[in-house]
Design a protein that fits this description.
Blueprint (H helix, E strand, L loop, with lengths): L1 H15 L1 H38 L2 E5 L4 H12 L4 E7 L1 H20 L7 E6 L5 H12 L4 E5 L2 H43 L1 H9 L4 H38 L11 H28 L8
Antiparallel strand pairs: 1-3, 1-4, 2-3
Helix pairs in contact: 1-8, 2-6, 2-8, 2-9, 6-9, 8-9
């Protein structure tokens, strides 16, 4: 019986304060939608950045020597903590690459056979540029290594862009969620003020604060469920229908699966609805006293 009462009162609370509930649901929807859109856009920006990052390879040029000496260099490179993969580029392959990149004008230079053999080292995705820079002197000291070349400036620039994107997105998302949480708080507070007489009567017959608070928690969670559904629909329409219409590309779901972001948005909306209503209910119900007017 008490469970039915709690559910019924939670729904009726939204009906009684329709404008306040509409405002709260709208704020929650916009907040969760914007956070979901930021996450999906940020994920795709991260994937693009990592794709560019993996193309920045370290080229270790080899001094003239035997095949065995070159293999020793390769084994040393593979043991480095920054190494994801190592590929060998022979002198003939280097000349062919030179011809392809510089065309007919570079052919005479390629015939001079001045290009050394090398190893191209791909850096692990979780390795920062400062770690790479710290190992460059040690790599140059490996016997059989003539020189080392890497576009460190580009690597550092990509890292800075990704870091700024993550920091800015987190700041904007946090501000949006805070505003929505305050609106939920105010909605439940107004509902409590409107029902002060009922709350006093319930306290007179022995109802606990926890029991009185329960319908308001249900109300907040119902607002979260509605907001989650609307926000998820909005993200899907934006990235899977609107964006592909104007841009010839589809922004992927984070980690390649739709349910990660959908689950996160649903949990976020429910948490905000629950926490905002609990915050307001705990704050104001205890201030409603039996003897007050």
């Amino acid at each position: 019986m008490s469970l039915l009462y709690i559910l019924r009162e939670g729904v009726s609370g939204m009906r009684r304060a329709r404008l306040a509930s509409f405002t709260s649901i709208t704020a929650l929807t916009l907040a969760v939608f914007l956070v979901g859109a930021l996450v999906r856009f940020g994920w795709n920006a991260y994937v693009v950045g990592e794709s560019i990052r993996t193309q920045i390879q370290m080229e270790v040029f080899l001094a003239d020597g035997s095949t065995q000496a070159h293999r020793i260099v390769e084994s040393r490179l593979r043991l480095l903590p920054i190494t994801a993969s190592v590929s060998y580029v022979s002198k003939d392959s280097a000349a062919a690459i030179f011809r392809r990149e510089f065309g007919a004008e570079g052919a005479p230079l390629a015939e001079l056979d001045f290009l050394p053999a090398s190893y191209r080292l791909t850096i692990k995705s979780d390795v920062r540029s400062d770690s790479v820079a710290g190992l460059l002197p040690a790599i140059r000291e490996i016997p059989g290594v003539a020189d080392v070349s890497m576009n460190m400036a580009l690597l550092m620039r990509i890292e800075a862009v990704l870091d700024n994107l993550a920091t800015t997105g987190a700041g904007i998302g946090g501000l949006i969620l805070l505003v929505a949480l305050v609106l939920v708080f105010n909605t439940i507070r107004l509902t409590i003020y409107a029902k002060q007489g009922i709350i006093r009567a319930m306290k007179l017959v022995g109802a606990t604060n926890g029991f009185i608070r329960s319908p308001f928690l249900v109300e907040g969670m119902l607002q979260g469920v509605i907001a989650a559904a609307l926000a998820i629909l909005g993200v899907w329409l934006l990235f899977d229908r609107v964006v592909p219409t104007y841009i010839d590309m589809v922004l992927a779901w984070p980690m390649g699966r739709w349910y990660y972001l959908v689950g996160g948005m649903s949990g976020l909306a429910l948490f905000m609805g629950y926490f905002g209503s609990r915050w307001a209910a705990r704050t104001f119900i205890k201030n409603v006293t039996v003897g007050s007017r």
